[in-house]
């Protein structure tokens, strides 16, 4: 999910944030003073706000009195601006994110049990957002309590040493929030955790790695999102994979045009790798085959027994091939998800191969008549519905504030 904020609005927002921050902190510059207290053996220096206006009435000796109404008002506003309002804003923004996650469906081929994988990812995002909000509240709450206590207390006498200690710890905890947030973001990232384990020697890098990647190719007519044209020319796909073995890179690709779909190409890309493994003569050198794919659906079908409507024969063939390799050669075959287009060299090579195969499939399709599949009709209908929804969303008079952050249902 991406926030689509135009560049000009972002610049204005940054300027407003800086102006607002300077305005809020300006009283601290105007009323902050350095004080000295001369003792017999040393000079004590400290900084404090100088809101004094005279002597406190009813005391035997003149005592510095604070202009409490102005000071109390200022620190109360600071508490609202820097603590209460951010919490309210975070709750509102996070509720919008959660609502979008739960209402928007991930486009692609519909499966019977793919909801469990999607729900797992959604729950992970929700847990992270709740964790960030909780940490922010816990870190800043003690400091706000200490400030408000010092301003609203009825006893005008100087507070004891316990307050200085509590105030110091509260400030330290509040400022540590900026250091904790990156740890939270990184802790929820699987690649970061693997990197930490690898640095500590707890993560064993596989000796044999295969990276599978798929891509789809649509003709110019097909991308016009015309329902009639889509019915005439269904999409074509290409499968590509890059295998790294014995310091060699083997490029594999195959066009997919018969009842072509994205999922079919994803399965074919994985099958290309397994077919190559089965053709290797000396398999004793291989302990583990690790296949990286950007398709959680394909991985779920092969490892979690997800049910699908189409391409059952292909998935069953791959599962049988996996069992055969494991049984006869004792090779471990594991799958791992990797994000697509993440500047990973193996992904980029496999992506190029998949596009080349897709172009070949498109050329073959032009020379042959192919029956329109049920999935092609579903895809055309989904594109048409999304197009109509986007048109209404762009021209609606309501929800304009949210529109600045979420202008499209894609991405």
UniProtKB/TrEMBL annotation:
<dbReference type="InterPro" id="IPR000276">
    <property type="entry name" value="GPCR_Rhodpsn"/>
</dbReference>
<dbReference type="InterPro" id="IPR017452">
    <property type="entry name" value="GPCR_Rhodpsn_7TM"/>
</dbReference>
<dbReference type="Pfam" id="PF00075">
    <property type="entry name" value="RNase_H"/>
</dbReference>
<dbReference type="GO" id="GO:0004930">
    <property type="term" value="F:G protein-coupled receptor activity"/>
</dbReference>
<dbReference type="InterPro" id="IPR002156">
    <property type="entry name" value="RNaseH_domain"/>
</dbReference>
<dbReference type="GO" id="GO:0005886">
    <property type="term" value="C:plasma membrane"/>
</dbReference>
<feature type="transmembrane region" description="Helical">
    <location>
        <begin position="165"/>
        <end position="188"/>
    </location>
</feature>
<feature type="transmembrane region" description="Helical">
    <location>
        <begin position="12"/>
        <end position="31"/>
    </location>
</feature>
<keyword id="KW-0675">Receptor</keyword>
<keyword id="KW-1133">Transmembrane helix</keyword>
<feature type="domain" description="G-protein coupled receptors family 1 profile">
    <location>
        <begin position="1"/>
        <end position="185"/>
    </location>
</feature>
<keyword id="KW-0472">Membrane</keyword>
<keyword id="KW-0812">Transmembrane</keyword>
<dbReference type="Pfam" id="PF00001">
    <property type="entry name" value="7tm_1"/>
</dbReference>
<keyword id="KW-0297">G-protein coupled receptor</keyword>
<feature type="transmembrane region" description="Helical">
    <location>
        <begin position="125"/>
        <end position="145"/>
    </location>
</feature>
<feature type="transmembrane region" description="Helical">
    <location>
        <begin position="74"/>
        <end position="104"/>
    </location>
</feature>
<feature type="domain" description="RNase H type-1">
    <location>
        <begin position="225"/>
        <end position="359"/>
    </location>
</feature>
<dbReference type="InterPro" id="IPR012337">
    <property type="entry name" value="RNaseH-like_sf"/>
</dbReference>
<protein>
    <recommendedName>
        <fullName>G-protein coupled receptors family 1 profile domain-containing protein</fullName>
    </recommendedName>
</protein>
<dbReference type="GO" id="GO:0003676">
    <property type="term" value="F:nucleic acid binding"/>
</dbReference>
<dbReference type="InterPro" id="IPR036397">
    <property type="entry name" value="RNaseH_sf"/>
</dbReference>
<keyword id="KW-0807">Transducer</keyword>
<dbReference type="GO" id="GO:0004523">
    <property type="term" value="F:RNA-DNA hybrid ribonuclease activity"/>
</dbReference>
